Amino acid sequence: MYIDLITKIKNSQQAKKETLKVPYSKMNESLVEVLSKNGYIGGVEKKGRSYKKFLEINLKYVDGEGAIRGIKFISKPSRHIYYQAKNIRPVKRGYGMLLISTPKGIMDGRLAKKEKVGGEALFEIW
What we know:
The chain is of the alpha+beta class. The protein is built from 3 helices and 10 strands. It has helices at residues 2-14, 26-37, 109-114; strands spanning 19-23, 41-47, 54-59, 61-62, 65-66, 71-73, 82-83, 97-102, 105-108, 119-125. A hairpin with a 2-residue loop joins β8 and β9 (105-108). The longest helix has 13 residues, at 2-14.
């Protein structure tokens, strides 16, 4: 589940780790790729074979602190929140990012609004 992945990344950054290994899944891979494009993590590599695949995530630091300052989970396993494209708003006045699971894949809020596609709001990150 993506909640575990994001929490592990944030906790590893607070513990000043350089890399993090998480089990591979397509959702984890797409989430990490979006975070990497937007500068919240350093990079990602897929390693292993067949059922032993894992993702090795390089964490990013700015002035000795983790690039991720905070996270707010919007959808949870017990409650799913959906946004239309017209209802997507900037996070932290443009300094944060909203991740949305759309029919076109997982993307950030700005891109989803630009492509006029809505979906399940996963979390906000800043």
